[in-house]
């Protein structure tokens, strides 16, 4: 006679096996996406993606690239999600018309639904974005030229001094420090002076780089980020290493400043002559009181500033490396800028810099190789089917495209791994390239701060290229982070 406990466990094991077998059969043969091409293992389980995200340290993007070569321009990359590799479809998927939700699987992994850029539902994102959009308009950004120039001048002076002394510098830390100081000054009206730090607050860069690994892990094991967020900041400071302590100190300073600005703005007699910040825009908007509580406002501050300094710092690092590794590119830029100055043009004006073809082409090429988002951006049309060629994509299906893969497709950009500003100088080549170029994405979720980023690139490239001339030899070297 069987032991009752043994029988119970056998029944449980059979039930579990039957559940997974039934689920796998459904996903492979009965699911609405079953007819789409792609690896069967990816269609059966998210752990296929999880392996490349966690074990292979974020390589699923490039696995998707391989899958497209094998299966075609539209593929199933998980039980629930499709991916398209065709620039013609980009303007269909990332357009302004219609309702578009974000795929919660990717964005919930950050553990913060509060920030505007993380809002997955169309109406919620639209409502939260509305008061912020004017703050990042081109006119608003242009009005802050003096502030941007001040930080850029400090950046140039520091690098020139380092070059003259023949010292080594972490260029990634330096460009990120510049971007961080500009971002917080623009958003909060206060800089945290990372450019004054001896090592450019490299710890903050290290923490930001580590966030990607944490995000990929928490996508597949959701409670990881929940446990970390449940830990009080003071506790985290006690057990953190030096890099994380520096990062937490920056976060705590931004948190305190956000609270102070909110308290001033909400006081019965707010002080006059205070700089407008995104906090004022949120508090003065028609958003509900739920959207104006401290935690959500602070999440907007950190997410918007973080998105700004991460993308700007990374792209500037790449541009500077290539410019100072290629004397021909550097010489063309110097000659163009010297020519503009000889014509008595004010090279501190954005409208002047935008008319310089070599400078503009160099920046565009840098943004091609270092777009704002390196991973796919899945969208959901909740109320209608989408169509790609002969394929009907059911309503509610997450569909993504990856900008960096589009920018690195040799059909769109010949010799795509080459840093070649010349590809933007020829009108015919540029016209074709523009069809597959979207460094700030497009549509309803287009990068909120694209004008701030573009202006920062213009000022930075101009002053740094001129500012280092004749002040010492600056060489670029690359160390790959494992």
UniProtKB/TrEMBL annotation:
It comes from the Eukaryota. One of its GO terms (molecular function) is iron ion binding. InterPro entries: Cyt_P450, Cyt_P450_CS, Cyt_P450_E_grp-IV, Cyt_P450_sf, Cytochrome_P450_monoxygenase. PROSITE patterns: CYTOCHROME_P450. PANTHER family: CYTOCHROME P450, N-ACETYLTRYPTOPHAN 6-HYDROXYLASE IVOC-RELATED. Pfam families: p450 (PF00067). The chain crosses the membrane at residues 12-30. It comes from Mollisia scopiformis (Conifer needle endophyte fungus). Heme binds at residue 447. Its cofactor is heme. Belongs to the cytochrome P450 family. This is Cytochrome P450.
